[in-house]
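Standup notes
- DV: blocked on the single-chain target, sequence here:
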Amino acid sequence: MSTPFQILGMGWALPKNEIDNDFLHKQVGLKKSPEWCMSRLGIEKRYSVLSKEYIVKTHNKDPMAAIVHARAHGETPVTLAVRAAQKAMAHCGVKPSQIGMVVCNCDLPFDLVPGTANYIAKALGIGPGPHMDMNTACSSFARHMMYLGDLRDSAWPEFVLTVQTGCYTTRTDYSPENFDGYIWGDGAAAQICSLKHKGRLKVEPIVFATEPQGADDVKVDATRHFWQDGSKIREFSIRRTVEMFEAVAAAKKLFAEDVYTVTHQANYVMQESIIGHLNLPKEHHISNVKTQGNIASAGMPSAIAQKLDKLKKGDQIVYAVLGAGLAWGGGYMEVQ
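- DV (later): unblocked, structure below
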């Protein structure tokens, strides 16, 4: 059983370029309509490290050129991660000099070597530590929490920075026949965690697993666009999320009407299906996918971060996320 620990501060960051459905349909030329997007995905807008002019001109035919474009405009997985981490540190008053470990997820790094965690630590002025990248795609927040929960007490530094960041729009095909442009946004989330200091959230990781037989169901080639078996992933996501919610509820003896729930922010229609399957109170479901799109591993923790100041002591949260691999994980949080 994983050891509970604390999240003291949370932060998030989005790039500056807002991309709405009308733009994607009318100017970029996606054949699927905004009405189709709302009925099938429930996403209204998202944010990209790519400029609107670049998307219209190129349809992002070359993902490697997209990386060059984003870097030239000063927005990368690292810059987003640094902004999210600065917000998390400000949230709890922790300084870079106090952080002894950075654990980072970045599925699509702009630099393959060294790891993104070391770039983040350098940019923030964090000193030496066992900084590492730990990637399980959109389920990475759960993997980070499970990793910390499984650490022996003596391996914990005073504070750990966990980060989830990604720029999936650089790997999105914006050609007319494709509709992935409606799905993806870019962004980052960050958390300051500690075993020794009381924080805003007590975290208890409960579930994490992978099914490698599904490794080819969601993938991004080293130089090409994002691809997934959409119908298969939708069925997998709904089924596994329902199972995780039930497992966490049973482990903690929870009732649906008493807790907040939060899932991977893939799309809002899928979330509504999960809520319906379990008869969960809709008003207690935490979500931001309508206004951010799917920002991969950063989606779910950013949703909690944006809701946290409105929650009161004793509120309980059940979280569940899924990603490529196939991988899934979930657990329990309680507001302190």
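- Follow-up: The radius of gyration is 19 Å.
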